[in-house]
Design a protein that fits this description.
It is a single chain. By secondary structure, the protein is of the alpha+beta class. The chain contains two helices and two strands, in the order H-E-E-H. Strands 1-2 form a two-stranded antiparallel sheet. Strand 1 and strand 2 form a beta hairpin.
């Protein structure tokens, strides 16, 4: 799910060309897609654990 999110955001949207400079740091579109992918993974893992793993 995380890989699919990063792939779709990186190559199927205009996020591929995104670049934001903040002081000495550069946030690329791929970096932003990876960050969003991590959030998607965390939320889906939380939901899975809440619904399936820790029923009760």
């Amino acid at each position: 799910m995380q890989l699919l999110t990063v792939w779709l955001l990186s190559y199927e949207t205009r996020l591929e060309y995104f670049e934001l400079k903040i002081a000495a740091f550069t946030l690329s579109g791929y970096g932003l897609a990876t960050l969003i992918g991590n959030v998607v993974y965390t939320l889906s893992n939380y939901g899975y654990n809440k619904i399936i793993t820790f029923r009760g």
